Amino acid sequence: MLQNYFKTAWRYLVKHKFYSVIHVLCLALGITFAMVIGIYVLNQYAVNRSLKSVDHQYLIKSDWGEAEGGGLDITTLGPLAKTVYEEYPSLVANFYRYNPVTNVVSAGENHFMENIAIGDTTLVNMYGFPVLYGDKQHPFTDNHSAVITESVAIKLFGKKDATDETISIHTTVNGVKQDYVVSAVIADLPYNSVTRLTGDVLTIFVPAAGSLYYGSGEPLSNWNNPFEIGLIQLQPGVVPADLTRPFRQILATHTPENIQQNLTVELAALKDYYLNDNNGAARKMIIILSASALFILLMAIINFVNISVGTAATRLKEIGLRKVFGGAKKQLVAQFLGEALLLTAFAATLSLPLYEVLRPVFDEILNTQLTSVFHFGWGPVCFLTALVALTGLAAGIYPAFVLSTANMVVAVKGKIDTTKGGLSLRKSMLTVQFTLAIAAFIGALTVSRQVRFIFAKDIGYDKDQVMVITAFPKQWDDEGVHKMMAVQQDLLQLTSVKDATLSFEVPNRQPPNAFSLQVATGEGPKAPIISMGADEHYASTFGMTMLTGSCFAQSGGYIPGQIVLNESAVNALGLTVESAVNQKIRDVASGNEVIIAGVVKDFNYSSLQEQIEPIAFFHVRDFRSYRYLSLKLNTTDMANTVALIKNQWNELLPNSPFEFTFMDEQFASLYRSEMQLKRAADVATVLNFVIVFMGIFGMVTFTLNKRMKEIAVRKVLGARIRHITLLFIKDYAWLIVLATAIAWPLTYLAADKWLASYAYRINQDAGLYIAVAVIIFAAACSLITVLCVRAGRANPVDSLRDE
């Protein structure tokens, strides 16, 4: 029986090659895109899942409210995680704290910039990181041991087993390096929110106890230090709400009143932290891409159903004869479902090489690494199997039940009216297709316009030809600042270097420090203002506009105790731009006073999703810390200029690696998710159009073949080709109008919700909506016209000849 079903299905598909090809191609495109997005989604949900006991792991986050000098939301007080573990062992099973830093790591004569975690020795055992070399139970042997990743071991020592080798970490103290003996090498870790929490990949882990990095004691033990990352593992059965009271009691015991009043401790689950971080950016991307894949697959299924039901008349005699000879309804259903599954299997077979060919393209679009077909595990295999089965059933279930319920007598006669109701269904599904196509097109254009707006907007500074060098060595004292400023002056002597500035941050990054400031007289409001160090060349290097005063660049040179504010900071302090210069400002916490040297025009120092907030600049000599040396270049020969700067850097700082980026690259990285969404939306829109118009092509071709005698009669009676074309266009025109009426409000609401996440955004334009509808209408009419003209040129005699 099954063999007979297979033969019948195969013969039918071979006989109707044209429609079979449309079925297979549409399904193959849909399945390929669904595979890409499905594997991407599986990878996204797998982030952090490899961590040991991840269901019980939490990050301690901080809501500081209006606290003076509050820390970041992803950091907490240094001792908090350890204290809650020690005082509430029935609630907390383990803890890990660390301070992420970037500095020079030396192995003999080799010097590299590495991301280092100065933290607790509980790391490996708490998260189950695989130890390749060293003691798996005690990877840290003492306070002078280090755990490094496999790739760093190869980079520093040229081998994987680097145990017992010595590395030197440069500190922020003048001339001080701290030696560590490598006690364990762990495998390179997949993306996770422990070693990638701040964006940089941590590769070296050293104990905080005995660390000389800051020269001021161990920061993890300081209750006034709010800039440590703290993670805890809860006991089985314990939920975050169970720690609300313990956290309050600990803060009441160990912290001053202003912290108790302003700090709210929150726990963020580590298992889905990646999906929820950055306002749920990853989760939103997954939802949008999954919806796009579902729409494309749905369009392919609709094409299958439309063409299958539309061509049903060609199989009515077969169905009638099967019933005459005793064929049961369930057997007919199985027959047609089997055919649908067979076609879907063909499409899936074709989609595998398509997926493999397109995988590098989507790797770049989505900034990921999709799993190769040859390395599929159980997850992707089960996903693909389920995808094929569900797609085949969804595509075949309606045609199967429609055809199997045909009346036996009229089916034997091959009457078309046995598919009563099929026309309405096909038109309804075509309307759905047009609706999805219009919505996808408008969505893609909206994303594209917002991305163009982002890159074209005046952000308040000039990012072109600005080289940002990570300033090593990090010697955070007066002498260290003077040394780096001397390097700055030497680089300024190069003809291709127009300007240079030493600073703690660059314009596209939000500074981590904040101070509560107030006008010294005490008359104005207190305002928490983020702050950073910069020098007198900061505004000129980045092309910022000084509205009044100067950026520490008054005649006579550097004057201690000055500050530069942006417009928002001036307004937050209750001042005006015109009256701000020379006003005295007081740091509420310390009582220290500074004088406003100038006011800089507001600039976007973070994503356009965020409003511009108050910011204050202290002179880098007063701030006594720095991280970046930025050069404004003036050259058309970038390659030679970079080589020249590198040579000069190596002469001035022979033991410091030359690590740099360009501001325009950093700016683009802020909007990586938007660029991914734009490219994916473009691909989805193209696939939508391909599938929709392949479906229209198949349906119109079938309809024309079925109505050839009618067309011939019309021609004999004097109808012209344009009349016949208009007749067919009319059938589809109102479907596009209806689809437009449905798509416009739905798309507007969805686009408006997406745009609402941006503080600075485009306005939705009615012209865009109208243009999309016109384009789709024109494209559909053009396709129908071409097919009708070809059919209309046929000789009426051939069509009217009686069989």
UniProtKB/TrEMBL annotation:
Residue ranges of the TM segments: 21-42, 285-311, 332-355, 375-398, 429-447, 683-704, 724-746, 766-789
Subcellular location: Cell membrane
Domain of life: Bacteria
Keyword Transmembrane helix found: yes
InterPro entries: ABC3_permease_C, MacB_PCD, Macrolide_Exporter_MacB
Residue ranges of every copy of the ABC3 transporter permease C-terminal domain listed in the record: 293-407, 686-790
Keywords associated with the record: Cell membrane, Membrane, Transmembrane, Transmembrane helix
Domain MacB-like periplasmic core: 20-211
Topology with respect to the bilayer: Multi-pass membrane protein
Main location: membrane
Name listed for the protein in its UniProt record: FtsX-like permease family protein
Protein species of origin: Parapedobacter deserti
Lineage: Bacteria, Pseudomonadati, Bacteroidota, Sphingobacteriia, Sphingobacteriales
